[in-house]
Amino acid sequence: MSAALSVGVQSLALLGPGLPDWATAAPLLRAPSAWQRVPTVVPAPQLLPATERRRAGLVVKASVVVADAAGAAAGIAPATMATVFTSSTGDPANCHAMCEALAAPERLVSPTRFTNSVHNVAAGYWHIATHAMTASTSLGAFDASFAAGLLEAAAQCAYTQAPVLLVACDVPYPEPLHAVRPVADVMAVAMVLTPRGGRRLRLSLAGDAAPTPCADAGLEALRLQIPAARALPLLQALAGHAAASLVIEGLTMQALAVTVDAA
Length: 263
Description:
Helices cover 37% and strands 22% of the residues. It is an alpha+beta fold.
């Protein structure tokens, strides 16, 4: 990337261990000594009808909860925003169930399981619920999924000069997959990026630069244990008021440098 992308963060939403929403999380991210790590509780996404809530997996529910909160905080009609959904895990419980079904003698997979097996399942539920016919991108890049999603959303926002909703979410795998790909808990982050206004970010590729750690040991452990939690240093900067510069873990030679303007 020869020049930095410049976008604004209009709103934020967060759901994670001991971080039930952005209003609660912001002061804890500024003063982590007050943060206590407790398991994430995913509330029922009120945007989805009861039937869809029953069918949806945990990644869908958590993604829709934060997407709905970020959209409401931005004051922008959800149906008007393009979206970028990023996840390292997708719906691992559904993946596990399908693997079990395919390993059984009958090899029967239910239509609901099959529908929920695609990586863009969270985006699908969101766009159907909001009647949005805007562009949507779903991607995954292992531990670099948040950086990849942020870069994609910022590029779209800068190019289209229109708001873009970014949603990053990861949930744990059941055993035996958890043993080879441990994800500690559910974490979901959403932000509405705008071409003008908001808290300004400038993004550029940083080669093989080392990612910025969290100064607090507990938050640093969380950052390393959930791919979506790679967003924590940026979220801490956005929770504060000072300017900041940081690096978010990316793919090989594609770390993402982010400069956050003062509030």
